[in-house]
Design goal:
Bound molecules: copper (II) ion
Helix content: 40-55%
CATH architecture of the largest domain: Orthogonal Bundle
CATH superfamily of the largest domain: Di-copper center containing domain from catechol oxidase
Number of helices: 20
CATH topology of the largest domain: di-copper center containing domain from catechol oxidase
Distance between the termini: 46 Å
Order of helices and strands: HHHEHHHEEHHHHEEHHHHHHHEEHEHEHE
Mean pLDDT: 85
Structural class: mainly alpha
Low-confidence stretches: 1-74
Number of strands: 10
Shape: globular
């Protein structure tokens, strides 16, 4: 395959040290400018502008490639809502994405997303097994890395997609400059309450993934293959087709997340806190009594029944737990209870009492947004409830545009929160460095960067902004 290397304003192949050096003077000036006033402030602005112009004036060259900082300062790419894109933007994104999947360009992204040891990128992993299991990371720092790591991962993907589109455009005799404005849109799941039609229609075929350590479920193309071996992805997506994950987050949910005072709270709510809907609690308790009678030895039913028995404050949606270990145990029990219904539904004569009881339990538990968006978007294969949609498998989800759009939405929530909060994830040293793709993996598209937490958290310096902050 031919891989183009072109130096443009979009090119971000400058070294990270170069980038740091370039951005540093501006940051310093901004900081001091905000502390001083009057003449000092004006002077600060003048110096900042001069620094920006200097960065722009640096010539791009093959031995000392530049352009990244310049691109930041020329214009930020505006990421729009997937449901607000115009036909030309949709067409451009589709051509880039399908081409990149077909070429296998997302394979490295799949491997890195699955490589938890190297990337430490999730507080809770979802296994490929059926029933699904949530696995807590060994350290809370892995959880704190979720948002910044995915921010850098999306930046790499955007850059790769632009390179892929330039390559395709050259082959097809189109103007490759259209790639400069390409962006990954966000999926405003709360307001859309569905995947936008064009996204649902975009189910690119191609790409490969590695069988994860826990194996793949029966009926999945990776089933029965040795752990670590490579298989061809068969794209699947059945949004909302899971009787226990048939609802997207509701309007009141994101304000609850954004009301967090510190980053740790914001993160907890996105990945593992499970609020209970107070008004649905009586029905859930009734459902649990039914399930205890029908499945007296089922540990999951017991755990959920115990958890919701605790006294809860009136008229507030109580949060079941704030501890990641206990939360994971509870989430797993809820997932186990859910499996009672999803497996029941596929029997020749489904027991509606069981299904109703399970649904009542799910009516009171609000699953964390990260889990909910993945499982809702992927759904279950109607022909085999043990097989879920591609976006739910951590080892193959990069080929699904819905994966990128749901994480861009989570990123937008963080971005919005950052506009009124200064808190950073409590990460230091190596934990505050992010290199989602290695320099080798990213070489062909000018990526594979290392991003520092400071860089990633400074929204004004990011090479993108959102068309709109999250608005309830
Ligand atoms: Cu992820």
């Amino acid at each position: 395959m031919s891989r183009y290397r072109q130096l443009t304003n979009e090119d971000t192949s400058m070294s990270d040290q170069d980038r740091d050096r370039r951005l540093a003077p501006r940051k310093r000036q901004r900081l001091s400018a905000s502390r001083r006033s009057g003449r000092g402030l004006i002077l600060g602005v003048v110096i900042a502008v001069a620094a920006a112009l200097t960065a722009c004036a640096n010539p791009a060259g093959p031995t000392s490639p530049t352009g990244d900082a310049a691109a930041h300062q020329h214009a930020q790419v505006v990421r729009k809502s997937a449901s607000q894109m115009n036909p030309a933007e949709i067409d451009r994104f589709e051509r880039a994405f399908s081409y990149a999947v077909g070429k296998g360009y997302f394979d490295a992204f799949n491997q890195e997303h699955q490589n938890h040891e190297r990337n430490r990128n999730h507080g809770i992993d979802l296994t490929a097994t059926s029933p699904i299991t949530a696995v807590a990371a060994p350290s809370i720092t892995w959880g704190y890395r979720l948002l910044p790591w995915h921010r850098s991962f999306i930046l790499e993907a955007e850059q790769m997609l632009r390179a892929a589109l330039r390559e395709r455009d050259r082959q097809e005799g189109r103007d490759p400059r259209e790639a400069d404005g390409l962006f990954i849109p966000y999926w405003d799941a709360v307001h859309d309450q569905a995947l936008p039609g064009w996204v649902q229609a975009l189910q690119p075929q191609g790409g490969t993934a590695l069988v994860p350590p826990e194996g793949m479920p029966k009926g999945h193309p990776g089933y029965g293959k040795p752990v670590g071996s490579r298989y061809k992805i068969v794209f699947g997506r059945w949004p909302g087709n899971n009787i226990v994950f048939d609802k997207l987050p509701q309007l009141a949910y994101v304000p609850y997340i954004l009301a967090s005072d510190d980053f740790a709270g914001l993160y907890r709510k996105i990945e593992f806190e499970t609020p209970l809907v107070q008004s649905a609690l009586p029905a859930a308790k009734e459902g649990l009594e039914t399930l205890q009678r029908r499945f007296p030895d089922n540990a999951d039913v017991q755990i959920v029944a115990e958890a919701v028995k605790q006294p809860l404050p009136q008229n507030v949606d109580a949060v079941i737990t704030q501890d990641i270990g206990a939360a994971t145990k509870f989430v797993n029990a809820v997932l186990g209870v859910g499996y009672l219904a999803t497996s029941e539904e596929f029997r020749p004569h489904p027991d509606q009492e069981v299904i109703r009881a399970v649904k009542a339990v799910y009516g009171t538990v609000v699953m964390p947004a990260h889990v909910d968006l993945h499982l809702w978007a992927g759904g279950l294969n109607p022909a085999n409830p043990d097989v879920r949609g591609t976006v739910t498998y951590f080892n193959e989800l990069a080929v699904d545009p819905a994966f990128w759009m749901l994480h861009t939405e989570l990123d937008r929530w963080w971005y919005t929160w950052e506009q009124s909060h200064t808190g950073l994830p409590q990460l230091t040293g190596d934990d505050a460095q992010f290199q989602p793709l290695t320099p080798q993996e990213g070489a062909w598209y000018g990526g594979g960067h290392t991003y520092s937490l400071t860089q990633l958290a400074a929204t004004r310096d990011l090479p993108y902004r959102y068309a709109e902050p999250y608005r309830a």
